[in-house]
Design brief:
heterodimer; A: mainly alpha; two-stranded antiparallel ribbon; B: about 475 residues; Amidase signature (AS) enzymes; 11-stranded mixed beta sheet
Amino acid sequence: MSSSPNLDVRDVARLARMELTDAEAEIFQSQLGHVLEYVEQLASLDLTGVEPTAHAHPVYNVFREDIPLPGLPREAALANAPHSANNLVVVTKVIE
Amino acid sequence: MTDLTSLSVSELQAGFRRGDFTPTDALRALESRINQNDPSIGAYLSRDFDTALAAAEKADISLPLGGVPIGIKDAINVQGESCTCASKILAGYKSPYDATVIAKLRAAGAIPFGRLNMDEFAMGSSTENSAWQITRNPWDTSRIPGGSSGGSAAAVAAREAFVALGSDTGGSIRQPAALCGVVGLKPSYGRVSRYGLVAFASSLDQIGPIARSTRDCAAILNAIAGKDPRDSTSLDIPAEDFTARLGRDLKGIKLGIPKEYFVDGMDPRVRAKVEDAIRLCGSLGAELVEVSLPHTSFAVGVYYIIATAEASANLARFDGVRYGHRAAAPKDLLDHYMRSREEGFGNEVKRRIILGTYVLSSGYYDAYYLRAQKVRTLIRRDFTAAFEKVDAIVCPTSPDPAFRIGERVNDPLRMYLADIFTIATNLAGLCGISVPCGFVDEEGHRLPVGLQFLGKPLDETSLLGIADAFEQAGGREVLDARV
């Protein structure tokens, strides 16, 4: 089976919002190329009429009564934030 | 006094009830053993004996697990303790709540006391992907303990824990249990709540115990199983006593031997041990039946598409906003995300996020992700057909004994193939257990070999009965040996 020339790890990493160093990009390109070559074996199966399985047991949306239950206290929810002030999470500027 | 640290959970509880020693004695014995031994093993990332000893003083030993200390994989939230998934991106994170399994263990009287090392975000088969430290196999400290729950298995084997929780997405409980010579149970998908387990691949992850006996695994499962409104995939089924079929033989049990699980390339000594163990099952009364699981060779490929796809979605939450590492002085929001994730994630996690993002991306979804889901259907059907003929399947847990630290770190594909016998279980939602079945000798060290039993979905009671029968006849040599 062919290798996967279409995989550009830098491009995909950018989709995943992840910077890569040059060294990482080079080695991942080669390692993931081998993995994709390996999974090409799946192309040898005839899957006509086979339904996909997303879950080991069929699962459906589960609803409950719309009754408020206690959540995390504010201090607990903010305790792990890298930057917080005035009971809010401080984020990097989104709008110029 | 006997060395408390070598006791199983059931022996420990018998001692509590006789008044031979107390939960406080048990914790102090563990603390001393860990302080003396863990520098050479590296199983623990942290432990909190002050909190645990306070709980032990008030322990109610009449509860099902009253006063039993339990080590916890670093992917499971315990309120007030760190929970890093062995990742730099979660350095300093303190859990604001208990996972459901922890709340249930506490209600049963158990005492969580320490955080166990793992492959970062449970991605790996050797625990070498931890951002913090290497964990060593207690049987030969130049070798890996398996993974991803390597800290949990090593701690139990090294008498640094009586029992521990791990999680299993593609073999992460059973493979390290096999390589460390202990018992590891992966419950059926939906049996145990995943609430508070940091998600890797949500359709495959399950929490389960690693212990020194099948009986102990059953006791822990009794405590942690059940429907949880906070995990919509946990199943609403009647409670049962998972110890109900312990202490029996194998008469009337049909065990399937899948011919595809005895492949070229597996260690011939492992193969011989497993074949001996299967013959022993026969002499204990089991009827041995050859079965076929024709799509076995596709399981690793299917797994590395589905698991990475789910991981790439699950790990999108690590954005450096509400928790976790945030890069210093980002120039804009994109830079904030890109550098926070670059700095926080290790290599294996990055590789899998890239692979998972790729197989889900426009133009490749059908060729990879959808195709893998269809082959997953074929793998499930293989098991459904086999279970029409047999009560359980018996096979090796791992094709090799523990390999050397560093041997496979630069060859991800070879590392992935270490999970070849465990992965299909998760894809099909089955339950599985690894029980030691002997040693192979390697350069002056004895290395444990694991025998794996696979059960029908939600048939843990039968599975545990079968595993216990084997353990009593053929598993105690390893379990009773001291590393």
